[in-house]
Amino acid sequence: MKLFDVYPLFDINIVKGKGVNVWDDKGQEYLDLYGGHAVISIGHCHPHYVEMMTKQLNTLGFYSNSVINKLQVELAERLGKISGYEDYQFFLINSGAEANENALKLASFKNGRKRVLSFEKAFHGRTSLAVEVTNNPKIIAPINDNNHVTFLPLNDLEAWEKELAKGDVCACILECIQGVGGVNMVTPEFAQGLQKACKKYGSILICDEIQCGYGRSGKFFAHQWLGIRPDIISVAKGIGNGFPMGGILISPDFEPVYGQLGTTFGGNHLACTAALAVLDVFENEGLVENAHLVGEYLMDELKQLQQRTTHIKSVRGQGLMVGVVLDIPHKEVRNKLIYEQHCFTGCASTDILRILPPLCLTRDNVDDFIQRFETVLNEL
């Protein structure tokens, strides 16, 4: 049997990681400013994380949700406290797509409606409902195309209010900073107006914080820059620092019903241990504040680089979620960064570099990256 060939791969075999660096099987070191799609939050192979995971694996890796799991309770309590959502409820699953599936399902259970509003250029996952609210026809199969979704422009409050006023909208789902869409930013005015309109018309406001959340923006959640408090918040990626995990934070307005939601693997002992280790490091090393401060420094350095080189059109983002808009396709830039400068970055569209490093990134790491990036730009 061979692998189902759906991933265009770089010809690099990464076999080791530490902090913000990874190494290939030939011993070459790379600066990792992508963190495996924004998954690595506290750094590769953090010693506290490794210690906790090893200890738990030697104790109990898994048992089902048919018995008490006190690690789940501890995680919910600590996550509520650190994020400012102590009055919310927490449901654990295994991935971002699952988180959005359950968020949308719960919203529909709440108000009995089916229609969803989503942003143009949105990305919310690749499974049934999650892919239907994703604005990319290439990955929506006919079986997923069920006419539940209306895609609307970013920050066009009038357009969203017009649709909400029809009275049939189940939920509005938004990334407060779009990831795959190109690090596009929601404005506070739009977010606050949308929240008010959702309450007026009985629609559920869902914030997809899978990529932009969990400290990456410099606050625990990106929507906290916008002055809103959504009904449901979906999380994944950075929650487990690479261990498959997701969850939804649910308003106290929702009443749980036995059997309404469920999962085999979600919230297992090893996953909860990963998430608790991440929160330990967040608190002990101040990584959310670090994302804010180092993110500001990164943005400033990129804007200075823009002034002294060609090819950078604009820089946007928040914290350690940064988009660099180029006047040339990103493909050659990324290839030179990876194969010549040994630095991983992400991308969006055809001309945007996405920078999504571990939240332990330092100013020295930023200076290192700027030097490598400038070398590449000067060669093009």
Any key phrases for this structure?
380 residues, alpha/beta, Aspartate Aminotransferase, domain 1, Aspartate Aminotransferase, domain 2, 2 domains, 7-stranded mixed beta sheet, 4-stranded mixed beta sheet, 11 helices, Aminotrans_3_PPA_site
Can you describe what's shown?
- This protein is of the alpha/beta class.
- It folds into two domains: 31-46 and 286-324 and 336-379, Aspartate Aminotransferase, domain 1 (Alpha-Beta Complex); 48-285, 3-Layer(aba) Sandwich (Aspartate Aminotransferase, domain 2).
- Helices cover 36% and strands 18% of the residues.
- It contains eleven helices and 15 strands.
- The strands form three sheets. The protein has a seven-stranded mixed β-sheet, sandwiched between helices. A four-stranded mixed β-sheet has the order 1-2-3-13.
- Helix 6 (157-164) packs parallel to helix 7 (188-201).
- The longest helix is centred in the last third of the chain and has 22 residues, at 287-308.
- It is globular.
- The N and C termini lie far apart (42 Å).
- It comes from Prevotella herbatica.
- GO terms for molecular function: transaminase activity.
- Its cofactor is pyridoxal 5'-phosphate.
- Pfam families: Aminotran_3.
- Keywords: Aminotransferase, Pyridoxal phosphate, Transferase.
Radius of gyration: 21 Å
Number of helices: 11
Structural class by secondary-structure content? alpha/beta
Beta fraction? 15-25%
Cα separation of the termini:
42 Å
Overall body shape: globular
> CATH class of the largest domain, please?
Alpha Beta
CATH topology tier name of the largest domain: Aspartate Aminotransferase, domain 2
CATH architectural name of the largest domain: 3-Layer(aba) Sandwich
Helix/strand order, N-terminal first: EEEHHHEHEHEHEHEEEHHEEHEEEH
Strand order of the largest sheet: 4-10-9-8-7-5-6
The level of helicity is 25-40%
Number of domains: 2
What integer is the average pLDDT?
98
**Beta-strand segment tally:** 15
Which segments are poorly predicted (pLDDT under 50) over 5 or more consecutive residues?
A: none
Output the CATH homologous superfamily of the largest domain: Type I PLP-dependent aspartate aminotransferase-like (Major domain)
Largest beta-sheet characterization:
7 strands, mixed
Keywords: Aminotransferase, Pyridoxal phosphate, Transferase
Cofactor: pyridoxal 5'-phosphate
Family: Belongs to the class-III pyridoxal-phosphate-dependent aminotransferase family.
InterPro entries: Aminotrans_3, Aminotrans_3_PPA_site, Class-III_PLP-dep_AT, PyrdxlP-dep_Trfase, PyrdxlP-dep_Trfase_major, PyrdxlP-dep_Trfase_small
